[in-house]
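tmp note - Nck-associated protein 1 homolog
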Amino acid sequence: MERGLSVTEQKLAEKLTILNERGEGMLTRIYNIKKACSDPKSRPGFLMDKALEPSIKYIVRKFPQMDTKATQLQAVQSIQNEVMKGLSNYYFTFVDIMEFKDNASELLTAIDASFVHFDITLNFDLTKAYLDLIVTLTALMIMVSRVDDRRSVLGLFNHAFEMRNGRSEESFPRLGQMILDYDSPLKKLAEQFVPHQQRVSTALQSLHEIYLRKSMTGEQWRQGQILSIINAPANILVPGQSKVPAVEYLEVSVIQRWIMFGYTMCHQQLAMPGITDIWKMALQDGFCITLFRDEIFMFHKEFHNMLDGMKGYGKRIKDIQDAANQMAASVGIHKERRNYLRSALTEMTLILADQPGLLGPKMLIILHGLSIAHDEILWLVRHCCNPAPRSRKLTQEDFFDSKLPHLLFAVEELRSMVQKYSSVLQRYFIQYLSGFDVYMLKQVVQKISICSEDISLIMTSFIDELSSLSVKQVESGELFHFSGLRLDWLRLQAYTSVRGSSPELKDNRDLVELMNNVVFHSKLVDLQDETLAEVSDLSIFCFYPGFFEESFVRCLEDITQSRYCIAFPLICGHFMTCTSDFCPEERHPIGDRSLSAVNLFLDSMAKEARNIMSQVCSEHIQQHQQLWHTHAVRMMTEMASERRTKDKNKKNVHVEFKPPGIESFRKSRETLTSLDTKLLSLTELCHAITHTEAIPVWEHIFAPKEYLSSQLEEFFAKAVVSMAQYDIDNQRIARPSEVLSNVKAMMSSLRSLENYTGVDTARVFNHVLLQQTQPQDSQGANTITQMYTTWYLDVFLRRVMTDGIVYSPRRMAFVNRPGMPFRAEEYTDVNELQALAELLGAYGMRYLGEKMMLQIASQVSELKKLVIMNKDVLVALRTNFDKPEQCIELIRRLRNMDDVMLRMIIIGVILSFRQLIQQALDSVLKTRVPYMMSCITDMRKNFPHGNNDRQVVDEMATSAGQECVVDPLLCAALRTLKEKKSEDDILTWSLLLVFVAVGLPSLAYKDASEYNGELEAHDNNAHCISSSVNSITGALCSNNGDNPEDRLREFLAITSSSLLKLGMEAEKDLKARESVYLLLDMVVQQSPYLTMDVLESCFPYALLRNAYHEVYQKRKEPFL
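out:
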């Protein structure tokens, strides 16, 4: 530096600012290079190439002097371009570090030459920038020495460059020498800092009092009430004051790094009185400090190695050993501090939440609290995540703090409160700056009599800028920029801290105190987020993912801490603050890490709440099941009888019966049941989930409640399906009424979550239950609709035909024969089917109906094949049914008549079950949506039948459970069987009715066709034929345009003729003649097209009357 330069031309302030910012960027880049080289996945491929292994060994051995013509380096020839491209970023990062080191050394020399006076209490910003530069330079050179592949990377790149360009890269000689010099970075730096030790020592000595004050124990903090904003109620509105506000929230770890590295680099100063004590005090605080992110510095070991061998430093080495031995005491000190901080910050949060107007006057105390809490958290993290030296009797468990989540939560609460009331702070400090500050500044400036023109301009600009401020700027949303003012103040500190300057800063302490407060106030206007990040940024957890996740899991498992677990996803929003513009390539990896972490935490919280809720629901369902009527007999028996057992002493021991609800009677409030504990855990966890509506993380917004809603939906869906207890192998399923009862009990339990979380459980229920009305849910899993449809169609209806189950119109259910283990009525009575309708809803019942129609279509398809097989005989029967002799002969020629009747019965059974579920659905919907059902009924009755949209109306009515003349679902199912020519179609289906008509008399020869008056049903379900004939005729005629009334009249005529011929048969052969006669009456009664006068015209009513009399006289074995 030329001595002719004036103090303003030296630009010390600007250079310090730029170099500190660039130093952080260089640390970021060298950090990423170190991590990349130590990870096999990201390490440059050239360094692991077997073919280049001899070349790399040669380069490392000869570094930095290498013979480019050496045979070992020939392998690089073919890949020189790839090597230069792959390693250029690494190489030029080291070049930038070398240039940074040179510029920093030049600036430190210039500062020494100018005799700048440093005092943290006088020129805070200048002193801080100076000490930061020293620490940054030291950390950077230590990081360089930790890159294991530095020689191979630099040598390989330079050799490839030389082979390509015919010369060595211009920076390589100096760079190679720097790598050699800084193999032992501390010793080399100590040599270089010999000329600077006077300035460094002066700056560090100004820290002694501050460090002692900030290193007090937690008990001393508590006694001094350093973080209490209500310790003096009379002064609660008085703003927090300090001569140097930034010192109040300056972190101890920062001061500790300054002292350790500063005095160690200038180790000659350690012999000075008072300095050794401060240095030893810093050495006793743990065993490591942070270099950068998760790179730590084991200072006892490193300082010992540095001073070992130096003459006259035996006492200093002894001091290091003594400090290491006393390290265990710091664990208890920090634990006591954290205990105080938890209560103090919680108290502060509660007061500020009630009175946010105190944020302005008490902002300095808030930042102070956040600062020391941040410092304690960082201390704990780095000591928990790095093993203590083996010689010390300390384990990682000694550093673990189970209440860390509480402290993290308190920090996040204060941060969110400051961010929430940002405009309040801006209004307060704008008024402060434009009022008190500018008034006092004018008075202070007037007292300064002699100053240069540059200094005068700077102070005038202060007054002008502050005078132009007003609250209206805040109200209009104007952005403030005070960075120029702060830089001018730093310049002013540099100008007036040089020896011989006029005026000197130390002679104008009023100006210093005022401008320090102005800078502090300005930061709380335009740099609120940056100031918060400075004192409470927890992005360090991004680089300790294992510890971060482990702490979260422990917090989630600890009922006393679970309410604070929301702090962990909130901290993920800090991760992006650690990125640097000097290393943009790390933004995406860190951003992805933050997104995956917040997603993991919120998902785990929601899953834990779901698991607890599932246990609560299970207990509630068990209690609800105790009130079922199926348990009534057992409970009455237990209440009536006294269970007594005799012990060895022949004494009677009474076993007390515990009725349902006994758990609600408490003998003591202190006794907690397992359900109480679960509810308490759920309450705490829900408090965490509902703490915030949204968590912003790297341009994404996460909503914790939505995670809980998603988990509840998944849990509720699985629970509903599991309640059905569908067992495919054993063909079992739970009764619909039981499932519905359990679902309602679970819904009642889940609805209680609204008291804790505000989650819209109605939306959860609607979403899940609506999916359960479909055959598959949104995840592709089977639903209860699919399960019940499969069971009723593939299991139950098959049993109807094979196990002697009968459909009883009188009971409106299917019933069993006596002695059967399976009770069909438990699945088909009115209550069960109404419960099924509630579970499956209109969509699910329609799906069940569609599947039944497909089965009917399958049966009709087989009937069609049988009709075509017997077509000629049926055509003859159709024209000769009134000729007995020919008719009998033709009937004998028919094939598979029993098969036709069996299939008609099957169709009738399916249609009867369809009728039952339609009636159940109609009943349920009339209760749930009476107005809508009345509208549907009115439209069905009054909509014109000739209109083209009539089919749509019928489909709507059928879907609502109402009965239509022609079932549109059946029509749609049978439409696939339609012939191309309608004449052929009409003939085929007409012959089917002829086949059924002539086949009915065959039922009279079977014992199973007997009619049961109690059930109003035939034992073989032959009475269901009436439903199949009417429904199929209506659907087939609707599809092919035929007249169903004509077809049924023809069917009635042929059937009557066939049945009347039974009178000529012998009585002993006709086992159920009267029972079969009743089928004619049933067909007419259920038909919308036929009337009784049509029946009387072809079949004597006297026979029907006698048949009814005859069948009701018989006594049948009762059905269950």
